[in-house]
Amino acid sequence: MWRKVSWPIVGLIVFLLASIAWAQAGHVYVVPSQTSLEAIAQETFGDAKYAPAIMRATNSKHLVDPSFLSINSLTMGIPAGAKLLIPDRTWAEAFIAFWDPNRPEDLFGGGKLVVGSWWTAGGEAEGLNALFEIYDEHYPDVQIVNATIAGGAGFAFRAVIKPRLIAGNPPDTFQLHAGLEVEGYSPETYLMPLDKLYEIEGWDKVLPKDLLDLLVYKGHYWGVPVNIHRANVLWYDKAVFEKYSLTPPKNWDEFFTICEKLKAEGIVPFVMGNTGGWEAAHLFETILISTLGAEGYKGLWTGDTPWTSEGVTKALEILKKILGYVNSDYSAHSWDTVLEYIAAGKGAMNVMGDWAMGWFLGKGVDVGWAPVPGTQGIFDALSDTFCLPKLAPHPINALGWLEVCGSKEGQIAFNTRKGSIPARTDLTAEEKAQFNPYLRSCMEDFARDAIVPSVIHGAAAIESWVTDFKDAINLFLVTKDVAGTQKALVEAAETALAAMK
Ligand code: BGC
Prior knowledge:
By secondary structure, the protein is an alpha/beta fold. Helices cover 48% and strands 13% of the residues.
């Protein structure tokens, strides 16, 4: 029978199937007799209030397929035979919750979606592109503008985006760490609370409690999480470890024994970059977790653990000792360029968040991993979210973006490339199987370990504190003054805790 089907017909079928898959979610409705949008909304949704959602969805569709009706007003008569797109209920509800009758353009499709982020490095860019591809499948009428500002961990990004937000010229959506980082954006003034969207999408039922708690600031959700990253990972060169019969160090004594051995072999034991000015502080944060434990570390950011603690002194001493084994050119490398040392077998170990896994994946490097020495059973967590500025020029386009970010489809496509795990916890075994062994083990660790918030990546502290913390560590790299640095850290904590009262 197949032999009888001609190739043009097969081509046509493939094209039709593709265009169905590429449509914005919803179904086609052909109007039987002259009617109104409200009557159609009443018939299809059981409620006339959905008329604007049908108008927007149909107009968006019209831009890529003119056989759909172009609707120029909510009260326009809809002629018999007209083709409309009835959006799915979740999208329609989100639209009704966020559209603004004073913004007539909300009812028309097209336009841009300006996405602000700092994802430019290997793994990051691939993950972001995967999200763009999905968005484009759902909203082919919208032109995506990838507004990145390079610089790991977003310090450069925030410095640019904040004045834009204040000046009333924000992108449609932008990257924001879950946690106290949002305080720096005065969200009540500049961002839209997303509680209603969480309710419509049911995100509060599929996101882990630890993350939901982190996402609430001043009683509201301000961002939609796309992932969970782990900051306390020790990456190691498998071939070097095999060659010298080494096993990943479980504590700092083992770590330094390995360092000695490798140094004698002419291999850089530990590699680090610091051009971003945050990478050394990232390392220090993970050392603090090892010396203070989960509760002790968490207490640093709430005032429950004094910064004068012995654990802080010890952490500084460990960092000082590590500096005796790092690549001498660390101030000329960023978190990603320094990984070339490991890719080339010239450097053995590195501490970085698991976006490094995204980088290694992109380069095809089979890297080893273990928790940072002394942090077994603890997961130093952070999450990337996207928010909706109050003055977003294309808020409805941004709404679609937030839905993609929060969707299973988006999170699977993104995280398998990015080196992070989905924020959603409702993946099936089959869906989990799409992730590599590192990420699968990470999902298990996240479910089992004690979760602590990362400071350098916006979860644990307000931004001014993060800056003071990072500056103290950068100075320490030069002075190696343990007592003086601890004093600076104590003062930074006092200032920040007073400001947070
Ligand atoms: C972000 C990651 C990013 C990393 C390096 C972190 O703060 O959460 O998504 O890959 O910085 O840029």
